[in-house]
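Protocol step 4 of 5: obtain the predicted structure for the target chain.
Materials: sequence only (see below). No template structures provided, no constraints applied. The aim of this step is simply to have a reference model before the mutagenesis design in step 5. Sequence pasted as it appears in the construct record:
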Amino acid sequence: MKKLSKELIGASSIPIILSVLSKKESYGYEIIQNVKEISNGKIEYGDGTLYPVLHKLEKKSFIESYWKIGESGRKRKYYKISDKGRKELLTEKESWTIINQIISKLWKIEPSLI
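Step 4 output (structure tokens):
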């Protein structure tokens, strides 16, 4: 199974993480597993990839964090999307839809590029 490039994963990490958190609040490892499952293993975030993005999103007030005792009895840092983050997610969806339309048109015009 071919993995996606680090550049593409990096560029898509904000809309992916905001989308995951728009469904339900979550903690780091659960986000990693959720993305891995949704992508059929094509995207596997490591701690060094996920946490800097979470910190960036929190700094921009797109997400909020809080500590909570999980089902296992462990204290975990949970993240949830903010109202500002929901607005950003809508902007991201619009941008990615435009990019997808452009690429799809280009590849339909010149299928030899695929």
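Step 4 remarks: The helical segments are 6-23, 28-38, 47-59, 83-109. Strands lie at 26-27, 63-69, 75-81.
Proceed to step 5.
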